[in-house]
């Protein structure tokens, strides 16, 4: 059952196992089953190997009727398909991850679905399918989820493939996965209650999320160790107290994790902050717990200050549902069956009266891309510099001050060999000065935790956001490209593209506002800490100086 | 004319050219001329080579009548000699260096008679013998001066050789060179005016120099460049203004150098502070001038606060003689022909009524030896530590703060890509914070000059004193040993030993007092500088913090 396929674009095999194919060439495809976006086949020169699935179009007559139609259909074939699958009304996979999975590598925040230290501990009824260690969900019928973009050329080639308003050939495109494409093509459909409406208003220059009329914050207490199954299982429990209820609820890390997965699939163009990493290093358990808690606080701050995220049902359920197991499960199931995820999210967006100028949107998006690139680069530099500075303070600076302190102390001890009354005061003072320098060495060693680590945590949080935005921007760019290339269907497409653009720009604007707020407050915190650090040193030295007046 | 000599102590040749000789062995001496304390000869095993002159006793019958009798006489032979040579009434060697030469190696203060940058420039009449580049004087008849103790065992073996009250066999012994031995043996004689009397009083526990009834200080201005011979010669001139005359005199470094030489030969048991090093490094001329001036200030402070040194004729001449060339030369010649140098110095000492208990003196001296050893060790450690700390601040610390500052500035620049009004204030504030950190880096680099260098200078001054004291202590020990071994001549010997002991202990006491004073004031200075340094940093950071409130 050798299939034939027409090559849509030139592809030059560069790596072992790949073969080159030319536009309009007819190639043989050995099996229609893709291997991470690649097909195996033979070109007209008789070479056998791999080529990207998205570069070819299977010859219609040979299309198999198999349900596993993984992106091999021609645009027309798919356009003819029913949109019935586009709203997956139930996701029975609580750990379903969405398209941002794995994009934040390197930061303390991550989204990988590794087994948590307390993950294997059942916390829900049997209706939830069991998770393997990696816990990835089975793919929903039409929009497969994966952890990485398999084709190295996907985004570049994507532009080419949008020559007609049809489905995107690359199933791994964020535009597709997020539901952006489906929405743009009018395939999204769901019932949107008034309470679900998300309003984008026109700010001075940018669309913005409507300001939160009921702002609140939420504290996270030090986690406590809990046990269950008669002490067989233990886990850390975080007490969360949102200010709008002022009632504490207890949550475990895996609850955050579950919530995160819901949010990611729910909001295609909103940057859901990454959770702090989950791998317990074991050796530094207390450090790890403290670090995770700090990460969760940053996470929570971003959540509660986001007008959309803060008030979405699943987050409110997470923040307010008490110890009633039944109520928790009900809310959980409701969230997992939420109709307004992915493509349908865009149905909830209410835009400003005047549509945006698409050219201006494009400029803004381009500007933002440049911004994020620069910021990302600088975060890397800054994190390295700060890390190095911390290390130097904790080792080198400390050592230098302690060595000086020690040499003062030794001199004081040598001087003590002279037992005459008039030298005793000096000896004590020098000894005290030595101790002071040793203490100052300790101050230096302890300081980075107070003023550099918080900056580093902030940078990590923003590194997560910066890792989210390429995908978000990609959704908007996908819509824009499609609309530009097809003026015929302007009315509806433009309207839907405007919705996507409004949401994207509102999210970008929100990013900038929180960035300015967060960096301002963190820099202030840093400087205040530094000031009190140097004041502490000064006080110590003033103390030492006084000793030279005593006993003179 | 092969001489014979009897070996007094075993000597094991360890280095090439040395031969071993055994006690009581009769060896052949090829020439009685010593080579820096060594003789050449042949032992009974036929080995030819060098052995220490002080380890052998030339056989009497063979003693040459030559005038160059350099320590080869047997004790008796020497005891029979006339004491006529002991008071060298005129020293025509203005650069005569005394016995402390070369003992302060490694410090910024030194006593070596190297050619100064302006030394070759004539400043006196032709009656002064010309100086070679190393400028060492011809040795006075009886007490040769050298820059180092030639025998590695001299001080240990010294004790053995004092079995009878005779001359010391080792002509390089400080006890001998200083004139201590000659004085103890009653060979010193000179006319002592009342004005020359130096009074030692009994303090609470220690003999002390009588307090200076006319204390004064002396300022040293920044040196000015002077020229002579129509600009052919240039030199630095220091303006000195002693408070007791309040008239400025101008002196060059070589004047200090000449004065130093006078003081060293004049006062056998007084620690004359070493002058700052004279080698101009050339490349850092300004640094060098500033460093030398600081060294001269320390030197001057010690001089003016020393009851004996401050009021001695030569120092007063140095401080008060104006521009009158003739008056200067007269004073200069007078000082160079001073009768009360070396052994005769002790004739000027007036002791407390009750003689010291020699055992107690010995204990005190022993205690002081322990003290100086410990202090010397600790000065080395401290100087190294401080030097390293300075270096770290000037390079590492500076670099770290500047790197952090730079990364802040870069982040600020990245943020400037977002041109929205609400972010402008933050961007400026972050940029300012970056600059502040870079400034703080500079502060760190500049600070050591303010607070570590002065300590280092102080340590150098004291390193010089500590290098002086072994010789001073040696003089006293030499006297004590002689007295203990010879109870017969108790009366006179004891009295003279008491004089040496009183002077030595008074000097030790003075050392302790100035040490306590100097270290107290320097530590205070250091701490005050450090405090204002950290306050400056704090102010800079407070400044930066304010920027985050502006434009918000």
TrEMBL record, chains A, B:
Q: Mind listing the GO biological process terms from this record? A: cleavage furrow formation; endocytosis; endosomal transport; mitotic cell cycle; plasma membrane tubulation; protein transport
Organism listed in the record: Kryptolebias marmoratus
Q: Name one GO cellular component term.
A: plasma membrane
UniProt cross-references to Pfam families, sorted A to Z: BAR_3_WASP_bdg, PX, SH3_9
Q: Which residues form a coiled coil?
A: none
Q: Where is the PX domain?
A: 216-326
Please report the stretch or stretches of sequence annotated as the SH3 domain: 1-61
Q: Which domain of life is it from?
A: Eukaryota
Q: Which InterPro entries match?
A: AH/BAR_dom_sf (IPR027267), PX_dom (IPR001683), PX_dom_sf (IPR036871), SH3-like_dom_sf (IPR036028), SH3_domain (IPR001452), Snx9_fam (IPR014536), Sorting_nexin_WASP-bd-dom (IPR019497)
Give the membrane topology: Peripheral membrane protein
- Feature: compositional bias, Polar residues: 135-150
In which residue ranges is the amino acid composition biased (Acidic residues)? Answer: 115-125
What's the protein name?
Sorting nexin
Gene Ontology molecular function: phosphatidylinositol binding
User: Where does it reside?
Assistant: Cytoplasmic vesicle membrane
Q: Which family does it belong to?
A: Belongs to the sorting nexin family.
* Keywords (A to Z) from UniProt: Cell cycle, Cell division, Cytoplasmic vesicle, Endocytosis, Membrane, Mitosis, Protein transport, SH3 domain, Transport
Region Disordered: list its residue ranges: 66-164
């Amino acid at each position: 059952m050798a299939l034939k396929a027409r090559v849509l674009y030139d592809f030059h095999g560069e790596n072992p196992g790949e073969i080159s194919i030319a536009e309009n060439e007819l190639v043989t495809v050995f099996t229609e089953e893709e291997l991470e976006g690649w097909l195996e086949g033979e070109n007209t020169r008789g070479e056998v190997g791999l080529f990207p699935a998205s570069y070819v179009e299977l010859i219609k007559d040979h299309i198999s009727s198999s349900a596993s139609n993984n992106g091999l259909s021609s645009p027309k074939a798919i356009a003819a398909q029913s949109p019935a699958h586009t709203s997956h009304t139930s996701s029975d996979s609580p750990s379903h991850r969405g398209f941002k999975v794995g994009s934040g590598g390197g930061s303390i925040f991550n989204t990988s679905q590794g087994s948590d230290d307390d993950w294997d501990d059942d916390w829900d009824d049997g209706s939830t399918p069991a998770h393997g260690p990696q816990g990835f969900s089975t793919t929903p019928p039409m929009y497969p989820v994966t952890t990485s973009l398999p084709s190295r050329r996907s985004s570049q080639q994507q532009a080419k493939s949008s020559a007609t308003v049809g489905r995107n050939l690359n199933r791994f495109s964020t535009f597709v996965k997020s539901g952006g494409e489906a929405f743009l093509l009018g395939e999204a459909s769901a019932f949107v209650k008034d309470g679900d409406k998300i309003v984008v208003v026109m700010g001075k220059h940018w669309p913005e999320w409507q300001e939160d009329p009921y702002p609140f914050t939420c504290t996270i207490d030090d986690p406590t160790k809990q046990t269950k199954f008669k002490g067989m299982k233990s886990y850390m429990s975080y007490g969360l107290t949102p200010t709008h209820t002022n009632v504490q609820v207890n949550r475990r890390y895996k609850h955050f994790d579950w919530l995160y997965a819901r949010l990611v699939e729910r909001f295609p163009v909103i940057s859901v902050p990454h959770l702090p990493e989950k791998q317990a290093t074991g050796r530094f358990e207390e450090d790890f717990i403290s670090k995770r808690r700090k990460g969760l606080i940053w996470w929570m701050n971003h959540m509660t200050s986001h007008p959309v995220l803060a008030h979405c049902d699943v987050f409110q359920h997470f923040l307010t549902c008490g110890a009633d197991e039944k109520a928790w499960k009900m809310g959980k199931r409701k969230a997992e069956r939420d109709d307004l995820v992915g493509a349908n999210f865009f149905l909830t967006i209410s835009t400003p009266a005047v549509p945006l100028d698409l050219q201006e949107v494009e400029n803004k998006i381009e500007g933002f891309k440049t911004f994020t690139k620069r910021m990302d680069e600088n975060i890397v530099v800054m994190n390295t510099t700060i890390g190095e500075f911390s290390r130097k303070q904790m080792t080198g600076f400390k050592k230098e001050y302690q060595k000086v302190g020690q040499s003062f102390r030794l001199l004081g001890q040598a001087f003590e060999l002279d037992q005459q009354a008039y030298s005793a005061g000096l000896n004590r003072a020098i000894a005290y000065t030595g101790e002071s320098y040793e203490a100052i060495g300790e101050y230096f060693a302890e300081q980075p935790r107070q003023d550099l680590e918080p900056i580093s945590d902030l940078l990590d949080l923003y590194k997560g956001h910066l890792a989210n935005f390429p995908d978000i921007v990609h959704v908007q760019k996908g819509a824009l490209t499609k609309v530009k290339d097809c003026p015929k269907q302007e009315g509806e497409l433009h309207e839907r593209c405007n919705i996507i653009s409004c949401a994207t720009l509102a999210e970008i604007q929100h990013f900038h506002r929180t960035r300015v707020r967060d960096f301002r407050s963190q820099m202030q915190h840093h400087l205040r800490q530094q000031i009190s650090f140097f004041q502490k040193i000064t006080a110590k030295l003033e103390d030492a100086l006084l000793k030279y007046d005593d006993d003179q």
